[in-house]
Amino acid sequence: MEVKAAVAYGAGKPLTIETVQLAEPKAGEVLVEIKASGVCHTDAFTLSGEDPEGLFPAILGHEGAGVVVEVGDGVTSVKPGDRVIPLYTPECRQCEYCLSLKTNLCQAIRATQGRGVMPDGTSRFSIDGQMIHHYMGTSTFANYTVLPEIAVAKIREDAPFDKVCYIGCGVTTGIGAVINTAKVEPGANVVVFGLGGIGLNVIQAARMVGANMIVGVDINPNKRALAEKFGMTHFVNPQEVEGDLVPYLVDLTKGGADYSFECIGNVNVMRQALECCHKGWGVSVIIGVAGAGQEISTRPFQLVTGRVWKGSAFGGARGRTDVPKIVDWYMEGKINIDDLITHVMPIEKINDAFDLMHKGESIRSVVTF
Ligand code: NAD
Ligand code: DAO
Ligand code: ZN
Predict the structure, then answer these.
(1) Is there a contact between 164 and 327 (Cβ–Cβ < 8 Å)?
(2) Residue with CA nearest ligand 1 atom 31
(3) What local confidence, expressed as pLDDT, does residue 53 receive?
(4) Which atom of ligand 2 is nearest to the CA of 42?
């Protein structure tokens, strides 16, 4: 079939809207009509050329929501008409990783997903015979996409696509990092670095679990008001702090953060996030994705004296199990998504979404089809 997609032809080039050929789903795969897709910092990261796994040409996008249109042989967990959220972290429930219950990093289709192809090693997308890569196993910047059955979460029928698409990455990543990865407890003092689409979800989850101080750190003062609405109790602009940021935050939290979260992708900030943690028990969670080849560093004594450095991918969430529950939380008014979706535009305007992100003027832009 012919589909409409925003195609990334190369690093640093704007996306172009193209008619793309999409092959039908093979065994174990599903065809999904994408109704809406968020534009995440990670799409921009790949488009910039900084992503070591970035492949071109590709159809980017990993934060979508849509409807199953057709299923391939052997598919049993979804049927045409079901509403779904694509999962860049699948959940096969059979691999060693899934069965361990120690991680959400299902490895069932990892190798092919990283090569931009479906599990059989081929792409379903092409233009005039030229293969176009899938991206993160999802490629949601197209009005139809093909996904492995294990990479879709079935969600309730009344969930609005242009809101719950954000649960496909940003919401789940931020909320899951607090609940699944850090397991923040009531009364904890939390420091969040970066008040963008991920950091604000960390803040709303920290409030939800009953954190005490929720300190937000951002160089953009325009992020303050929304962060306060989501639960931030103290705002720190590093550019306005006299002297070093780390001792300032340790003083502010009266000994250091019980939990800190890096939601930027800056290796220098990752160090600050670890070192502002409380001696003896503070836990720092890296969420941000740093550029190719970059490394983190600290003095080992920071860890010897009890601080813990962790990372979190997709908020530690098991997609098929956890994503439908997060959709329920949204529908029940337990979490706020609406105020984070600052811009909605047709797919034809997708490059504007990247411009707004780079200018720091959006939290989330959502493209619709
Ligand atoms: P964003 O651009 O919306 O937000 C980043 C925020 O950081 C902005 O508010 C910006 O002003 C602030 N910032 C930049 N430099 C700063 C500095 N030096 N000190 C303080 N604040 C600074 O990005 P986002 O969509 O929230 O994504 C954040 C990061 O999370 C990205 O690296 C993204 O790739 C990553 N990410 C990770 C996962 C995961 O599963 N681990 C999932 C999605 C996104
Ligand atoms: O299993 O080795 C693996 C890789 C899993 C990829 C997890 C990606 C999470 C971070 C990327 C940001 C996503 C938007
Ligand atoms: Zn698995």
Answers:
(1) yes
(2) 288
(3) 82
(4) 14
